[in-house]
Specification:
The chain is mainly beta and 552 residues long. Among the domains are: 108-283, Neuraminidase (6 Propeller); 416-548, Immunoglobulin-like (Sandwich), CATH 2.60.40. Bound molecules: 2-acetamido-2-deoxy-beta-D-glucopyranose (10 copies). One 2-acetamido-2-deoxy-beta-D-glucopyranose binds next to loops. One 2-acetamido-2-deoxy-beta-D-glucopyranose (NAG) binds next to loops.
Length: 552
Amino acid sequence: MQLWQLPFTLSLLTFPWRTLADTSFSQSSDYSSGALGGGPIQTFKSSSSTPAAWNFVVPYNDSTAGQIDPGFIFMAPRGTDVKSPGALIYDKNGDLIWDGTQYGQTLLFRTATYQKDPVILLWTGAIAAYGVGSGYDLILNNKYQIVANFTADLNGTLADFHDTVITSNDTALITAYQPKTWDLSNYNIPNGWLLDSVAQEVDPSTGKASFTWIASDHVDVNSCYASPGSSGTSEDNPWDFFHINSIDKDSAGNYLISSRHCHTLYYVGPNGNVIWTIGGKNSSVTMNANTGFGWQHDARWRNNEKQISIFDNAGTSWEQDSTTSRGILLDYDAAGNSVSLSTVWLPFNQTVSESQGNVGMMDSGNTIIGWGQEPYFSEYNADGQFLYAVQFGVGDVQSYRAYSFNWTGNPTTLPSVSVETDDSSTTVYASWNGATEVVTWRLLGSTADSPQLAIPISNHSRSGFETGMTVTDTNISFTYYQVAAFNSNKKITAYSKFVASDGSSHDPAANQTIDSSSSSGSGSSSSGTLKNAIPGGLVVPVALAVLILSVH
Ligand SMILES: *[C@@H]1O[C@H](CO)[C@@H](O)[C@H](O)[C@H]1NC(C)=O
Ligand SMILES: *[C@@H]1O[C@H](CO)[C@@H](O)[C@H](O)[C@H]1NC(C)=O
Ligand SMILES: *[C@@H]1O[C@H](CO)[C@@H](O)[C@H](O)[C@H]1NC(C)=O
Ligand SMILES: *[C@@H]1O[C@H](CO)[C@@H](O)[C@H](O)[C@H]1NC(C)=O
Ligand SMILES: *[C@@H]1O[C@H](CO)[C@@H](O)[C@H](O)[C@H]1NC(C)=O
Ligand SMILES: *[C@@H]1O[C@H](CO)[C@@H](O)[C@H](O)[C@H]1NC(C)=O
Ligand SMILES: *[C@@H]1O[C@H](CO)[C@@H](O)[C@H](O)[C@H]1NC(C)=O
Ligand SMILES: *[C@@H]1O[C@H](CO)[C@@H](O)[C@H](O)[C@H]1NC(C)=O
Ligand SMILES: *[C@@H]1O[C@H](CO)[C@@H](O)[C@H](O)[C@H]1NC(C)=O
Ligand SMILES: *[C@@H]1O[C@H](CO)[C@@H](O)[C@H](O)[C@H]1NC(C)=O
């Protein structure tokens, strides 16, 4: 990959281990001032991927590095300053793991468990001008193959992107939006149109719904906070009175539905009746000090349904109700019919995020907060203490959510190779989109006379998304180069094509077969390289060295 700032090269020479500076910026004023553009990207030789480059606005240090959750970051940058919008997985250094932008711009992107397997959940489809989606939810297995493709069961209305949850029964909780005619004469709007919100539970394998909840059947459209304004006038400009943006289900079989425009969580029974509400103009649950929220996202049951986490935007594009958005964790006291504040997660630099955002609580106890419309995420330890913050754009760059998940990916594609030669040397670049298990690349060469007779040249530790390998002096004049991927068990899991510097290529040799048991993974989950590859204590001097070099 290209280094963005040459001084980093010097620091890399000084320190032989990999650092976040190799890929990402650290407290770069060039980045945060916009001098590098609204959406700085990484580029590669062996791949056309252009993922957002990160800037650690608050880097981790010796006391925080060891506390970071080992998972990979899942996010989906979009916006006019994003070169290639869509799903991306990164390690915690900001190195790309998987580029899923072939599915286009998305909002919902996370892992889940489906039919006992770890999977990726990814929405794909069209985004309407009024900010809701019409498309399909994909379930991808750990080979990145589509195992399910489903949508709403609503007479042709397709699934929206605001939420999808796979339940422990392998059903999916989804959101959908339906424009419909509505009497809006009380707002002086003739021939009015309402954008109704729908929550459904569907079976991804059959597409059939077992539960459908239509907001206007249960909530007075005039009881919320977003008046029609200039909307409500046509099917293409309907009034979004409710704005569903999350759905969860508890062990009792009831649903927790978040309405942004009603500032309310609705707890709904299987027959659709509202059992209780939290928030809004008429909360049925008593809300103790500092539990109020508005324009919120991502309401989830936590801790055996004793707590609820919420991303409290505290504002929207037309109003700010507080000085900052925040993540909150509420204790829910069912017997006392009340909620009280347990934890608050604040951004490193307090600001209101007008839209989007999430509270990504992880099994490790850590939490990632995605700041939605603001292109930042930050991580907190189990005590709620702030660990670090990353900026992934400056201009119009946003990610609906950001998560940290363990993930093992074994793609069925071949590794990708690019060969660069100049007068004095040849460098071979290798990457393999989505492969999490490569530890070492073996470089092989072949001659024009025997284009498929692979001769091992050297071994190279995998270094980030793309590893550059300089060809050492040999007495053989190689025309083609190839790489083989070794996993941690020293098994070869893939051979690339043979590639020449002019780009011409040959398939791998017929006898270069892979033992499929070696690539299927052990069932263990891979995670970020931070704890595994970088001695925790050594992060500090490097991060500081980079910091000094990059502040202008
Ligand atoms: C999902 O299914 C829909 C409907 O059949 C289809 O149009 C779409 O191309 C599918 N998506 C993918 C990624 O295969
Ligand atoms: C689908 O359309 C049928 C016929 O118009 C109607 O009876 C039914 O209620 C509709 N279902 C939903 C979920 O909208
Ligand atoms: C799973 O199915 C069982 C049996 O139908 C039901 O009791 C339970 O509530 C369901 N759980 C979820 C999360 O849907
Ligand atoms: C407030 O909610 C209660 C139920 O919790 C309901 O009985 C009452 O009518 C509501 N009041 C208003 C003004 O909507
Ligand atoms: C923090 O926020 C203030 C006010 O919005 C802004 O001027 C400043 O640049 C921000 N600092 C960083 C490091 O983003
Ligand atoms: C490490 O980072 C955390 C979070 O920003 C900060 O609170 C702490 O003071 C830092 N510690 C040192 C030694 O710099
Ligand atoms: C290359 O050839 C020279 C002369 O035959 C020999 O001395 C040298 O060891 C060879 N080097 C390699 C890497 O094979
Ligand atoms: C390359 O790595 C493989 C797997 O660990 C090993 O068997 C082989 O000897 C190594 N080759 C060199 C030249 O180090
Ligand atoms: C493939 O066949 C060639 C020529 O017989 C041999 O040199 C090479 O070692 C073989 N490679 C593998 C991976 O078996
Ligand atoms: C994630 O991976 C780490 C090891 O890297 C492991 O300790 C942890 O238990 C895993 N978490 C989950 C939820 O599987």
